[in-house]
Specification:
Number of strands: 21
Low-confidence stretches: none
Helix content: 40-55%
CATH topology of the largest domain: Nucleotidyltransferase, domain 5
Distance between the termini: 72 Å
Strand content: 15-25%
């Protein structure tokens, strides 16, 4: 390690005042930025931790200069630190790979409001809903709002004599042509807001009144639209995962080691959950605080209530900072509501890995591997047969390592032959690996046998292969054991998580191939759409609904001639 004595001398010069300190390399690269009520005391703390903290050792060894900025108060130092971290992205400060501006839906504040997507709270004037986790659901929800409530799709709203294609596709009520009164349009806006907020129960009664009014006036088409709105809202209520919480809105950040689970509550119910991916863990004593400040500095919506399962040293500063950003009162509670704890226990495999290791070695006679790979096959009556490989690594699923396979050598329905092909293609990689994973196959003794056949064919004597049967949750091992996993809850939780993820991944790939094929069959019937244009349309829009919603101008930007774009719009509208 680089000699740290010069830093010790520099630290002695530090003032005993609040401020921000900066470690930099000789090239000017920012290594670490921190803040302190007392700069000298905090920097001495860093220096003392050099003896036993590897991260502190790396900060000092990669730095050549240490400088500081004195501030008037501790809070001013807190704000400056966050601004500098955001601007310079130092190597050893906490950084989130995910959570960077999750999309929200905005019902705009206009004479005829529409619904837009925003990743930064406050950049569009209007009412915000969300965030939506995972991110792709924001686009799907926006499309649903247009289909259900017919809010205008054009932005800004023009004045027209003739309604555009979106009106004929049932996505817009065409207020630009005066086809709907302002009063009726605003009623639909109110419905969209109720739907997005989850507060639908009172509004449903108003919809029933409206459907009765339309039926009396023999306006059956409009009554059918309202009926669809009621159905969607009733389904929303039924699908609420946890409802009736004691607070209307809040974010819950659940920390376990380097894992951070974000749970979003809006309208007294859970509307989203996702693990935040941390690129750099930073220093242990500040990890939770820095994740919190990093997440909300990226433009994410700040709710009135925030819950964390950690004690925060800087809680007064962060509450003040968040309240100023929100322009409203924010509370932070160091504790998780009981209803949320139960939800986490039911839905997330936050495994106690140390305890799991002890149970595993007693049960199987060898140590829990760092890596387990799960396999499954999915087919539809022998068509679109695919295989999946998912990876559990060091306590959690590693999606970057997932692999999927199109089965190439098997015709018709033959799950065993399909499984052998997939395993053979994957196991060949193992012949070049020193540390082999544990293989877990979705299925019973028959599936296990296919794994053992491939293992023997490739001479992988040290490879361990298990299979797990659904419903009974019996584990079959390569040394002849049959273990009822209900008697070993930690092992059950581990293996069913991997098995279910392998099944989900295989099924989703099978469905994707079927949708792609179905979409291309439809596009084959449109004049001017050949192989290349089919690929462009599929890669851009994925579904027929989204192609139908695209304007001629959008299609032209993809390189599709105007006459072909008009053919596409006409065919799909017909």
């Amino acid at each position: 390690m680089k000699d740290a004595v010069p830093f010790k001398e520099k630290i002695e010069e530090a003032p005993e005042q609040p401020g921000v300190y900066i470690f930099r390399s000789s090239e000017g690269r920012y290594i670490y930025i921190g803040k302190a009520k007392n700069l000298k005391k905090r920097l001495k703390g860093h220096y003392q931790q050099l003896k036993y903290d590897p991260k502190e050792q790396r900060i000092f060894s990669e730095s050549d200069t240490l400088e500081w900025i004195i501030t008037k108060s501790d809070y001013e130092a807190f704000v400056l630190e966050n601004e500098l971290i955001k601007q310079y992205k130092p190597r050893y400060n906490v950084r989130l790979k995910s959570g960077s501006g999750y999309p929200m839906l905005v019902i705009t504040d206009e004479e005829y409001p529409t619904v837009l997507i925003s990743r930064k709270y406050g950049e569009i004037k209007g009412d915000y809903f969300g965030p939506f986790l995972p991110s792709r659901t924001a686009r799907a929800m926006k499309d649903l709002i247009h289909r259900l409530f017919k809010l205008r799709t054009c932005d800004p709203m023009p004045k027209r004599d003739i309604a555009c294609f979106d009106y004929h596709l049932g996505l817009c009520s065409a207020p630009c042509t005066g086809k709907l009164s302002k009063k009726d349009y605003n009623f639909d806006v109110k419905g969209a807001k109720a739907f997005l907020s989850g507060d639908v129960k009172k509004f449903i009664y108003q919809l029933y009144d409206r459907i009765e009014e339309y039926t009396k006036k023999m306006m059956f088409e409009k009554a059918a639209v309202v009926r669809d709105q009621i159905t969607a809202m009733e389904n929303l209520v039924q699908k609420q995962e946890v409802s009736g919480l004691p607070f209307e809105e809040g974010d819950i950040l659940f920390f376990r080691g380097s894992e951070v689970l974000l749970i979003v509550v809006r309208g007294y119910r859970i509307v989203g959950k996702e693990f935040l991916k941390v690129k750099e863990e930073g220093l242990k004593d500040e990890f939770a605080l820095k994740v919190l400040t990093e997440y909300y500095s990226k433009g994410n919506y700040i709710p009135s209530n925030i819950f964390v399962n950690r004690e925060l040293d800087e809680i007064d500063n962060i509450i003040r900072w968040l309240s100023n950003k929100k322009r409203g009162e924010v509370s932070i509670t160091s504790g998780i509501p009981e209803e949320i704890k139960q939800f986490i226990d039911r839905n997330f495999s936050l495994l106690d890995v140390d305890r799991l290791k002890n149970i595993f070695i007693k049960l199987f006679g060898f140590e829990l591997p760092d890596r387990i790979e799960g396999f499954d096959i999915s087919t539809l009556q022998g068509n679109f047969t695919v295989g999946s490989c998912v990876v559990w690594e060091k306590g959690k699923m590693n999606k970057k390592e997932y692999r999927r396979f199109k089965v190439k050598t098997v015709k018709g329905i033959d799950d065993y032959a399909s499984l052998r092909e997939v395993l053979y293609r994957r196991f060949r990689k193992y012949t070049q690996m020193e540390n082999l994973p544990l293989v877990l196959i979705d299925g019973g003794k028959g599936q296990l046998k296919q794994g053992l056949v491939v293992k023997d064919a490739l001479g992988l004597k040290k490879l361990r292969v298990f299979s797990i049967a659904k419903k009974e949750e019996v584990l079959f091992t390569d040394d002849g054991k049959e273990i009822k996993l209900f008697e070993f809850q930690h092992i059950l939780k581990l293996f069913t998580q991997i098995r279910d993820e392998a099944h989900r991944f295989a099924v989703s790939y099978n469905r994707k191939l079927r949708e792609k094929e179905g979409l291309k069959e439809v596009l084959d019937k449109i004049d001017g759409v050949g192989k290349k244009r089919k690929e462009i349309l599929y890669r851009t829009y994925k579904t027929l609904d989204r192609i139908a919603q695209a304007s001629v101008e959008e299609l032209r930007k993809l390189g599709i001639p105007e006459n072909v774009a008009q053919n596409i719009k006409k065919y799909l509208s017909d």
